[in-house]
Amino acid sequence: MPWPLLLLLAVSGAQTTRPCFPGCQCDVETFGLFDSFSLTRVDCSGLGPHIMPVPIPLDTAHLDLSSNRLETVNESVLAGPGYTTLAGLDLSHNLLTSISPTAFSRLRYLESLDISHNGLAALPTESFTSSPLSDVNLSHNRLREVSVSAFTTHSQGRALHVDLSHNLLHRLTPHSAGAGPPAPTIQSLNLAWNRLRTVPDLRDLPLRYLSLDGNPLAAVGPGAFRGLAGLTHLSLGSLQGLPQLAPYGFQELKSLQVLDLSGNPKLTWAGAEVFSGLGSLQELDLSGTGLVPLPEPLLLHLPALQSISVGQAVRCRRLVREGTYPRQPGSSPKVALHCVDTQEPAAKGPDAL
Asked: Which Gene Ontology biological process is one annotated for this entry (predicted)?
């Protein structure tokens, strides 16, 4: 066997099982030359609250404590050999109604934390300051108000994804700039299906992805997205009530590439100026809205637009027809949308704007 192939087999991971706490399962994955490095995934899900605190191997990288009817989690039950080096912790589908501010203070290497499907009503402001988190899932809880500063982590600039969807949020307290800790490094924020009536103040966050799907937003007007010039993906699908898009409501979003407005049958047209400032927008989803037929001046405000989804299954792509060549001085190429019903085999002709 050739030496390169032998080396590849030596450094690739291999998975085995090892003795574990009764009821739990410990899977060991080995890496490196001659299996010189190992990590253990411990699954203690669905056993009941009596297992806490559960002893785990020293090289445990991920611990699954989901579906155990746990009512409390504090520093003492997340301590001991094996816990301090955890990179992933799953506490989902339990009965947690609160967490101690110091519950995760000893987890200095924790990168992924799942506390979804619990009954959390509040989030302490310093819950994650000791861990280099990159992924926090708090979806399907009972949070009503959360401070953005609560997601300050020991990240050293690492991008953070936060999922707060399916809560009872009616307000997000903005981060207080000044002498305190720096703004959280949240790049992806899911606020879908909460009770937000206005776009929250998220300035100073390095956001690139934001979902506000399913919220009862009353309007999106000028200044709604102030301070989010780096946002590239925005989803406003299936908004509750009667949402209104005011002219220049998206003008701060200079870097936005994808805008999803789908599933809003009551959404009405307020003029092409609604999309003013979206010079980088490439994809626009208007399926399931009242914003059809498309207004003629639309493409003038969206010079980078490549595709639009309209109707139930119609997708349009931008076409540029150069016309006669050489082009006459002062003339511009003719822009058209070529629309295709994805449920029909034959394509419709181009609709010139």
From this structure: hippocampus development
Q: How many domains does the chain have?
A: 2
DSSP annotation of 327 reads P
Residue 143 burial (C-beta neighbours within 10 Å; 0-12, 13-18, 19+):
buried
Asked if residue 201 is part of any domain, the answer here is no
Domain range for 320 is 208-353
Tell which of 70, 91, 119 closes a domain.
Answer: 119
CA distance 196 to 213: 10
**72/49 Cα distance (integer angstroms):** 9
pLDDT in tens, the chain (353 residues): 444 444 444 444 556 777 899 999 999 987 656 455 779 999 999 999 999 999 999 999 999 999 999 999 988 889 888 898 899 999 999 999 999 899 999 999 999 999 999 999 999 888 899 999 999 999 999 999 999 999 999 876 789 999 999 999 999 999 876 656 788 999 999 999 999 999 999 998 999 999 999 999 988 889 999 999 999 999 999 999 777 888 899 999 999 999 999 999 888 776 788 888 999 999 999 888 877 666 666 777 888 998 888 866 677 777 665 554 454 555 455 566 677 776 665 444 444 44
CATH number of the structural domain spanning residue 8: 3.80.10.10
Beta strands in 73-138 (DSSP E): 88-90, 112-114, 135-137
Domain assignment present for 113: yes
Same domain, 212 and 89: no
